[in-house]
Write a structure and sequence with these properties.
Layout: E1 2-4, E2 11-12, E3 17-18, E4 23-25, E5 28-30, E6 35-36, E7 41-45, E8 49-51, E9 56-57, E10 62-66, E11 71-73, E12 78-79, E13 84-86, E14 89-90, E15 95-96, E16 101-102, E17 107-108, E18 113-114, E19 119-120, E20 125-126, E21 131-132, E22 137-139, E23 144-146, H1 151-161, H2 163-168, H3 180-191, E24 198-199
Parallel strand pairs: 1-4, 2-5, 3-6, 4-7, 5-8, 6-9, 7-10, 8-11, 9-12, 10-13, 11-14, 12-15, 13-16, 14-17, 15-18, 16-19, 17-20, 18-21, 19-22
Antiparallel strand pairs: 1-24, 22-23
Protein name: Gamma carbonic anhydrase family protein
Organism: Streptomyces neyagawaensis
Amino acid sequence: MLITHEGCSPTIHPTAYVAPTATLCGDVRVGAGCRVLFGAVLTAEGGPVELGEGGIVMENAVLRGTRRDPLILGRQVLVGPTSYLTGCRIEDEVFLATGSRVFNGARIGTRSEVRINGIVHLRTVLPADSMVPIGWVAVGDPVRILPPEDHDRIWAVQKNLDFPGYVFGLDRPADGESLMPAISERFGRGLGRHSNDQQI
């Protein structure tokens, strides 16, 4: 399904293949020789999504570009099934295995690997030729790659990366208060811009 969003429509190179059940919304640019498989969702939420030559996006992956951070994949990148990428830059020849997660402002260097269910956190920089093991978390710049059970060391870096401020423009709430009402209102308002989308 191809959808126009905020006056922009997807563009697909003639040598690329996009499965009939994939959804491309807005300023999505699919490069030469790319493959976008069944159930994948590529959506430009104010910022473009660009797939470099020979990129592969597997089943049910979600790729989202944002106003602050476009989503850019280099050449010969493979995004595994059910992976989620938002507002990040992935350099050439990167392997993102099944269930990988890459968050806003992150950058992954050439020939790196994020293995099954690995996470590259907000504003994290993973240098070229790096590897995030199965289920581990990469966080910060300079990066620290930590096991998921090491929450205290992850949080020590993650807290200063300021997810609510960077992504939603909101201050972290005081203890005992919830950020969710403000996120729901602000994010919901932004997503409401899809009400004028048109299927091509």
